[in-house]
Design brief:
This protein is mainly α. It is built from 14 helices and 5 strands. The chain is globular, with a radius of gyration of 24 Å.
Length: about 280
């Protein structure tokens, strides 16, 4: 595992290793079996970890074994992938959240940058002013710890205004700062703002999902959304976000019309007349 971490020094690998090593540290690759995998999964569940987290951890272990001990005979059993989370914010909800952060300037700026760039929380907190190009109205989200290049995205008008204001008041090289220092995490202040806004089940990562859903709802091509999100494969973007597009499967659905009348949508006058007459097609 140590060799793999040197080769792949990503946050995911490091955090996963912290969970993996206490259980797997005393075993060799050849001892990995379905029984041990099940025991590891159950031990993590008892600690309140979801299957998505466990799957990510096991994926790191499997990748390490595949790279350095592929012939050891390890047998893996992974938990099933959980269904994708559907929670995202409407624009009205996002306005409530921004208003709730009005007394916390660094959090408010974090919210604006996160939604306008569709970036992960870590990328937003890592953003420095030298990667904010006001002349081109672009933001370079840089490179992750795993040397994976993040997206370069245009500024929205609203974000540009907020950034110009923050740039005048800057005390450090970081865009999101508190007391002249880099902000390590916004989880606590974020949770408080969510509570003040009266929202439920909202985490910082929901902002990235929200940005992608808004783009899909506006009919943005999946290829463009993929570039915004930094997805290396458009198929990943399509699998998660195509269903939010206004034209999603409309062509296929039109092929299923069996009655000529049903293919012609009722006029507004017809709908109003049905409503006044109390008509019920059921």
């Amino acid at each position: 595992m140590e060799a793999y971490l040197k080769d792949k020094p990503s946050d995911t690998a490091k955090f996963s290793a912290q969970a993996l090593l206490p259980f797997w540290g005393s075993y060799t690759a050849g001892q990995i079996s379905t029984d041990l995998c099940r025991r590891y999964t159950e031990s993590r569940r008892k600690l309140g970890r979801g299957d998505g987290t466990i799957l990510r951890e096991m994926g790191v272990l499997k990748a390490a074994v595949r790279r350095y001990a592929s012939k050891a005979g390890a047998v893996f059993e992974m938990p099933s992938s959980p269904p994708p989370k559907d929670r995202y914010l409407t624009k009205a909800e996002f306005r409530k959240l921004v208003d709730a952060a009005s007394d916390t300037p660094h959090l408010r700026l974090f919210l604006l940058v996160a939604v306008a760039t569709a970036a992960r929380a870590g990328a937003v907190l890592d953003l420095t002013w030298d990667r904010v190009n006001f002349a081109r109205r672009q933001i370079n989200l840089g490179v992750s710890e795993g040397n994976k290049r993040r997206a370069i995205v245009p500024m929205t008008r609203g974000l540009e205004s907020a950034l110009r204001d923050a740039h005048k008041k800057r005390l450090s090289e970081y865009v999101v700062e508190f007391g002249g220092e880099k902000v390590g995490s916004v989880k606590k202040s974020f949770a408080k703002a969510v509570a003040r806004a009266g929202l439920d089940d909202v985490t910082p990562h929901v902002l990235r999902h929200t940005a992608a859903v808004w783009m899909a709802e506006a009919g943005t091509p999946m290829a463009e959304i993929a570039q915004y999100l930094g997805h290396s494969k458009e198929t990943v973007t399509f699998k998660i976000y195509a269903r939010f597009s206004p034209d999603y499967l409309r062509g296929a659905a039109s092929a299923l019309e069996w009655d000529e009348i049903s293919t012609v949508p009722p006029s507004s006058d017809e709908l109003e007349g049905q409503h006044e007459a109390g008509t019920d097609d059921d």
